[in-house]
Design brief:
single chain, alpha/beta, Rossmann fold, Jelly Rolls, 10-stranded mixed beta sheet, 4-stranded antiparallel beta sheet, 4 helices, 16% helix
């Protein structure tokens, strides 16, 4: 099953998980996400947006692209995710979009309610793994910081994760109540979710992260 990898502006990682990109994946950049992909040594299939942020306009225009006016109804990230999901039969990964401008960060986060959250969201500051029902994380370090929070603004879930300094047992998670800066007490972490999906977030995107931990 193919997936889309969407590169966007904002804080992005300095490297990607070794097993992130598979044959048949669709790679698309939203405006300055082209710069991030280029810095990572990635050649994208398509570039979309108004091209007001990329530093490589001429190079971006040489790729298959869709150019929009700067005054438009939707953000470049919206357009990229919308386009990406028409090209794949699986989900998508979001690379970038972390920090810098709060309004952009919140707007990006709001897109997860419209298109569904990404299976993996890599920013400059954290690796966010989507959990819809159950996921086991291995090869962790004892004491490693981890946060758990809803994958959409309106998401609500009951969460169980026992291998934590502050264990979660049928914890009612919402945007106003999530597990911030918890820490792993074991080298593995099992997360059970009932309800809406959540993100399990490890600070700083790590090279050893796997697409499926």
């Amino acid at each position: 099953m193919s997936k889309a990898i969407v590169f966007t502006g904002g804080g992005g990682p300095d490297y990607l998980p070794d097993d992130l990109i598979d044959r048949g994946d669709y790679l698309i950049a939203a405006d300055s996400g082209f710069d991030k992909a280029k810095a990572l040594g990635i050649t994208v299939h398509y570039v979309i947006g108004d091209f007001d942020s990329t530093q490589f306009v001429r190079e971006a225009l040489s790729v298959d692209h869709e150019l929009y006016p700067s005054e438009k109804e939707y953000s470049d990230t919206y357009l990229a995710i919308e386009n990406a999901l028409t090209h794949v039969d699986g989900g998508y990964v979001l690379v970038g979009g972390g920090g810098y401008r709060l309004d952009h960060l919140l707007q990006t986060y709001s897109l997860f309610s419209q298109f569904g959250p990404p299976m993996l969201w890599l920013t400059r500051y954290e690796s966010n793994f989507l959990v819809t029902s159950y996921k086991r994380f291995d090869k962790l370090s004892k004491g490693e910081t981890v946060s758990l929070y809803p994958a959409t603004l309106e998401g609500e879930a009951s969460v169980k994760a026992k291998e934590l300094r502050w264990p979660l047992d049928s914890y009612q998670m919402s945007f106003s109540s999530f597990s911030l800066s918890n820490s792993c007490m074991e080298e593995c972490l099992e997360v059970h979710v009932e309800g809406d999906p959540i993100f399990v977030s490890f600070p700083v995107a790590r090279k050893q992260d796997k697409m499926v931990p």
